[in-house]
Amino acid sequence: MDAKPKDNGTLEVWGMTIDIWRHFERTLNFTSTFVPSIDGAWGIKLADGTFNGMIGMLERREVDGAVSSLGLLKTRAEVADYIGPFERMQYLHLLTINSLWILLL
User: Fold this and answer.
1) CATH domain 2-104 topology
2) Cα(14)–Cα(10) distance, rounded to whole angstroms?
3) What's the pLDDT tens digit per position in 19-67?
4) Where are the domains positioned within the chain?
């Protein structure tokens, strides 16, 4: 996923993860507004038991979901439900041509 900040504080987003998310939007009839992680982190459990990053934003109900290639961690699963993993990669390249994704191993 790639993102570029917009003047209104939201993000313009694109990439394979977003293409999948947009499919969910169309299929389930909802829309999304993307905002950056409050502190730039994905989310780890802190000493006080809370989370920082995107997982913390979910935990505090500041956002309804997080779209990213977040690693599947047991501690994150305490506060977040995962829909994946939908990708497993070691060394691979993804190319897009006119919104068609091509996988090169």
Assistant:
1) D-Maltodextrin-Binding Protein; domain 2 (3.40.190)
2) 13
3) 888 998 999 999 999 999 999 999 999 999 999 999 999 999 999 988 8
4) 2-104
